[in-house]
Amino acid sequence: MDSLSQAALGAAIGVAVMGRRTRPWKAALVGALAGTLPDLDAFYDYGDPISNMVYHRAASHAPFWQTLASLPIAALVAASLREMNQFRWWLLTIWLVLVTHALLDWTTVYGTQLGLPFTDTPYGLGSMFIIDPLYTLPLLIGIVVALSLRNVRGWRWNVAGLVLSTAYLGWSALAQQHVTGVAHESLRAQGHQVERLLVTPAPLNTILWRVVAITPQGYLEGFYSLLDRDGTVDVEAFPRGEALYAELRDYPSVARIARFSHGFFKMSEQDDRAVITDLRMGQEPSYSFNFVVAQRQSPTFAPVVPPISFRQARNAAEGLPWLWRRILGEKLPPPR
Predict the structure, then answer these.
(1) pLDDT tops 90 at residue 315
(2) CA-to-CA distance for 157 and 113, rounded, in angstroms?
(3) Could you tell me if 43 and 107 are in contact, meaning their C-beta atoms sit under 8 angstroms apart?
């Protein structure tokens, strides 16, 4: 999730655990700072763009390492605030903030390596978009009221914000499962042979969902709103570059993205350069993660080392109006 949501979650947990044991502003500040710590890995350069993508949300987001790190961080906090008598509570706070950071990121589609050091498999439920105001606002309201009232009533407002935001996560998972069932049934009725199916929310909401299906012929993309009047997911078909993938699949860069994306990728040739794209983040034709991995040297390719990363720009002026109308159930073709 975005940094604001993670800081708000950390602050809310800090107030919930420590708000009646220390001054609420201290609890909120420590919680917010600790809530942003795991994402500092984004500032570390692992050597190339694909490594930076794959190793983000890795060790710093693994509960095993977070548990070990909680001890020195909690000791530093308690000593700095001269509250060593509250060390066990600060330890609980720091541990909860770090672990819930990882679990919240797990609800997005990017992938979080929760099992390190035992497995580097990226796990991602994909039921939440990276920014969702309906998740973050209850947390912010609860924190503001708690810091304003500075009493038991304010503490209860903070707890209520935590409960509501957590309930929203549960709602998103249920909605995702419902749309997954609708998508399977609709695509089957349309005669599509689905090998893999991805259902993830469109930006900023959990009402409109993006559906991506990998098929033997390529991949399909469509959208389904919970406010649609029928159970049909209208999809468009796109090539996936299977021939190009077959030629380059043994390239380390290609193999890493294929594994990291759980098979939701495409390959294309652009200006004599082979590009691999993660299909999970973005929508046609604009995606967040594209990597030039090879250069054509006719008739074959030579690897590009290190790979070149680029993003495809989105037209927000067209996208936001379409998003709102499509959420409300108006079946419009997405902007291309």
Answers:
(1) no
(2) 33
(3) no
Tell me how far apart the alpha carbons of residues 140 and 162 are, in angstroms, rounded to a whole number.
10
Closest CA to 16 of 110, 154, 133, 109: 154
CA distance 48 to 294: 14
Question: Exposed, middle or buried, 36 (CB in 10 Å: 0-12/13-18/19+)?
Answer: middle
b (16+ CB within 10 A) / e for 113-149: bbebeeeeebebbbbbbbebeebbbbbbbbbebbbee
Enclosing H/E stretch for 210: strand 208-215
Of 258, 218, 260, nearest in space to 242 by CA? 218
Q: 304 in helix, strand or coil? A: strand
Residue 336 pLDDT > 90: no
Q: Per residue in 306-333, is it b (16+ CB within 10 Å) or e — as a string?
A: bbeeeeeebeeeebeebbeebbeeeeee
Interaxial angle between packed helices 152-189 and 3-18, expressed in degrees from 0 to 180 and rounded to the nearest 10: 140
User: Taking a C-beta distance cutoff of 8 angstroms, is the pair 198, 215 a contact?
Assistant: no
Residues 6+ apart with CB under 8 A from 73: 34, 37, 94
C-alpha 93/C-alpha 108 separation (Å) is 23
Q: Over the stretch 200-258, which tens digit does the pLDDT of each residue have?
A: 999 999 999 999 999 999 999 999 999 999 999 999 999 999 999 999 999 999 999 99
**DSSP category for residue 112:** B
pLDDT of residue 298: 83
